Amino acid sequence: MSKELELFLERSEKKAFDRTHRQTIGYNIAQYDKKVLEGKEQFSNHELARTRAAATKQKAVDNLEKYLIEFEAAFIKRGGKVIWAQDAEEAVRESLQIMKKVNAKTVVKAKSMTTEEVQFNEELEKNGIESIETDLGEYIVQLRKEPPYHIVTPAMHLSKEDVAKTFHEKKGTPPNWTPEQITTYVRLQLREKYSKAEVGVSGGNFLIADTGAVAVSENEGNGLLSMSFPKVQIVIVGLEKVIPSIMDLDLFWPLLATHGTGQQMTVYNTIYSGPKQAGETDGPDEMYVILLDNGRTNLLAETEQRRALSCIRCGACLNACPVYQTVGGHTYGTTYSGPIGSVITPYFRGMDEFKHLSYASTLCGKCTDVCPVKIDIHKLLLLNRSDAVQKGFTTKTENWVWFFWKGAMLKRGKMDKGGAKLKNFMIRQFFKKQWGERRDLPQVAPKSFNQMWRERKGMK
Question: Which of 28, 110, 385, 411 has the fewest other C-beta atoms within 10 Å?
């Protein structure tokens, strides 16, 4: 059993029986579900919008090299600089070189899952650079020294009382402060950071190939401020975020907003196309885009699973998943949790350590039903399971058990041999641990249906 699997089972056991946690998540997701229904009303044909988005993203993934080169050329033409990072270490190293060049002491950072993926804050702290999360949810979990709980809503697992307690313990604020008072306090704290930060960092929701621009969507304005004040901007974004044309945003922006938060449109949608141009008064002096691989080309090499690169990180599959709702985001131990995280993480961080995530699913298919770009997530989870077996990531004991099981299932004579007593012994011996302590093992009946049928018909 891998270390990651042991941790997953340990965390699952704890969270599944945490009533307070279940109530908080249940309430927050119920509110989300209501808003999504309202958001979908803006589409005259929601299914057609999903089909168009799926086709566009599939086109981008299938021609990824072409569109990335097109993006790079257009972005460089406007004075921007593009860095291709093979892994997390290279992305952080290149970022640090940029920061050291401008003697950066403070960095303001918009919400970004790719920076979480490369452990950006931790690496900057090691190098004596203060990295401040400016999204309110991210700011809260940073205070708590926790990773984001959810792709879209980092502090979904916390009630307003939990947040007030966190600020009381970490910042000395009154323990009974309201959300409005806490928000005002954070706003004042961040204003100072925006004005003195030398570098602003963000992720990107979409890379626009034909114009060489980065589109960022957010609801608080913190992303816009993080990228407006500092004279140096760095965008760290996954290779798969590219879309062919700026004209595609009229499709993807509403879909992302509706499936992500239930809005018709995210409050702030900003397109960054490079540093300040001649004659312009606003904008950064330098802008860099770091294109992050970090396992994405491993996924791209898969004939079927590459479909997962179409994901626009709306988080809808997490909210729909009964397993996620039960065990929570931190249980997965990964940057990307829930169904989509279970598909992509084995390729980002290794199949051997993370193949168990592909089994953390009921395969109910709800994740596929809610996906705005029609990724067959539950099918890809099954393909991951198959690949784990074919690539030799299963134990010898497991292989032997299924070898004998298959042999018995293929022949009636073998299936009927041994009797119920022996079969029940074998089930207890080999499947008890995998079946789990919370469920009773199935019992083999004294007589099979075949035996009872033969007796009834007087057959030998």
Answer: 411
Distance CA 284, CA 227 (A): 8
Pairing mode, strands 199-202 and 232-238: parallel
Cβ contact 381:342 at 8 Å: yes
Stated as kind and residue range, the H or E segment containing 83 is strand 81-85
Q: What is the CATH number of domain 43-294?
A: 3.40.50.10420
| Burial (CB count within 10 angstroms: exposed 0-12, middle 13-18, buried 19+), residue 265 | middle
- State the residue for tokens 């004075």: 79
Q: In the numeric block, which tokens belong to residue 288? A: 């860099």
Could you tell me how many residues make up the chain?
460
Strands of the sheet containing 242-243, edge to edge, are 242-243, 206-208, 213-218, 268-272
pLDDT digits (tens, 9 = 90+) for 313-359: 999 999 999 999 999 999 999 999 999 999 999 999 999 999 999 99
R_g of the chain, CA atoms, integer Å: 25
For strand 106-109 and strand 199-202, is the pairing parallel, antiparallel, or unpaired?
A: parallel
Domain extents in the chain: 43-294, 396-457
Looking at residue 169, its amino acid is: E
Q: Does pTM top 0.85 for this prediction?
A: yes
Tens of pLDDT, residues 413-456 = 777 777 788 888 888 887 777 777 778 888 888 888 888 888 89
